[in-house]
Design goal:
Belongs to the KAE1 / TsaD family. This protein is α/β, with parallel strands linked by helices and 345 residues long. It has 12 helices and 10 strands. The longest helix is centred in the C-terminal third of the chain and has 26 residues. The two termini are 22 Å apart. The chain binds adenosine-5'-triphosphate, magnesium ion and fe (iii) ion (FE).
């Protein structure tokens, strides 16, 4: 089926078009430049930017894919989680489009999109699989029995998300927003063993109750204290070493828990998804550790990890393939939609 996917949950207006699992177009307009001076996404600014970008982005996607929108079989749109005002722009556009084309509309989960997007790059997913979802607002381990119908969260962060930790640490190092890509780049020139930062929820007693959970706020505080002490001592802050050591702490915990979850649940595949899945160290360390125990790693190309419309079209394609009923035309946005709800009712 030919599916159009519409994404507007945060600061990217994304329109993707897929035929089955073939990616035909993926146009993204980001309002990130408007948020830089605030050091984070300003919801009202993001909503306005979506409003002006959505139709031009839709037009570009249809041109790139070289399809007539009348040929589309179904429309998929992010119903949540995300910023309410931002979500409503995409949902309203999707409803108008689906009503005009007289085609079914699916309000789908953004987080499932971060996982499903890999199917566009690597095809059918072996089931069951374990997914490591690492984004700006979420960090969880998922047991995926069926990507359209059966996803169970087996662990999640008890405080900050991984991307949030990157952004906060970048900020305290005086680096620009968003911090993830900047730290990734700067860490390449640093020594990951220079400073031993804490690995959250990995102590023996934590593993009893929080085996598959994460915690990054203690790490962020440890980095802040370390940097502060250097400054008090009148010493320069070795930014590359701090970035590399922080990154190593994050990636060490994420990868060891992902492999543990896959082994515990008897899955042969780990699927990586979310904005932080673009991280070069996470990609290589997870590959090393998964392969060492005979687990296959699947990860989308870095360009598909951060928010886009293709990931939403990918979910649409899977739910249509599974024969799920469309969403009712009166569905709304859900700012904290759980990952287990793939399609809203
Ligand atoms: P969510 O998907 O949870 O609703 P979001 O959509 O805002 O949140 P994403 O777009 O999935 O988040 O990811 C953005 C996050 O990814 C930011 O925190 C950003 O710093 C981080 N990120 C992007 N590229 C990298 C990278 N190369 N290394 C580390 N982090 C990165
Ligand atoms: Mg973004
Ligand atoms: Fe996202």
């Amino acid at each position: 089926p030919l599916i159009i996917g519409i994404e507007s949950s945060c600061d990217e207006t994304g329109i993707g078009i897929v035929r089955g699992r073939e990616l035909l177009a993926n146009e993204v307009a980001s309002s990130v430049d408007l948020h830089v001076r605030f050091g984070g996404v300003v919801p009202e600014v993001a909503s306005r930017a979506h409003l002006s970008a959505i139709i031009p982005t839709l037009r570009r996607a249809a041109e790139t894919a070289d399809v007539d929108l009348a040929e589309v079989d179904a429309v998929a749109v992010t119903a949540g989680p995300g910023l309410m005002g931002a979500l409503l722009v995409g949902i309203s556009a999707a409803k108008a489009l689906a009503a005009y084309l007289d085609k079914p509309l699916y309000g789908v989960n953004h987080l499932v999109g971060h996982v499903a997007v890999d199917l566009l790059d690597h095809g059918e997913l072996p089931m069951p699989s374990t997914a490591l979802l690492v984004s700006g607002g979420h960090t969880s381990l998922l047991h995926v029995e069926d990507i359209a119908t059966d996803i169970v969260e087996v662990g999640s962060t008890i405080d900050d998300a991984a991307g949030e930790a990157y952004d906060k640490v970048a900020r305290l190092l005086g680096l620009s927003y968003p911090g993830g890509p900047v730290i990734d780049r700067i860490a390449a020139d640093g020594d990951p063993r220079a400073i031993r930062f804490p690995r959250g929820l990995t102590a023996r007693h934590d593993l009893v109750e929080h085996r598959f959970d994460f915690s990054f706020s203690g790490l962020k505080t440890a980095v802040a204290r370390w940097v502060e002490q250097r400054r008090l001592d009148g010493l320069d802050v070795p930014v590359a070493d701090v970035a590399a050591s922080f990154q190593e702490a994050v990636c060490d915990v994420l990868t060891s828990k992902a492999v543990d979850a896959a082994q515990h649940h008897g899955t042969g595949t780990i699927l990586l998804g979310g904005g932080v899945a673009a991280n070069s160290r996470l990609r290589t360390l997870l590959e090393e550790r998964a392969n060492a125990v005979g687990i296959e790693l699947r990860r989308p190309r870095p360009g598909l990890c951060t928010d886009n419309g293709a990931m939403i079209a990918a979910v649409g394609s899977e739910v249509v393939r599974a024969g799920l009923a469309p969403s009712p035309m009166d569905f709304g946005g859900h700012s904290s939609l759980p990952v287990s709800t793939v399609v809203v009712r």
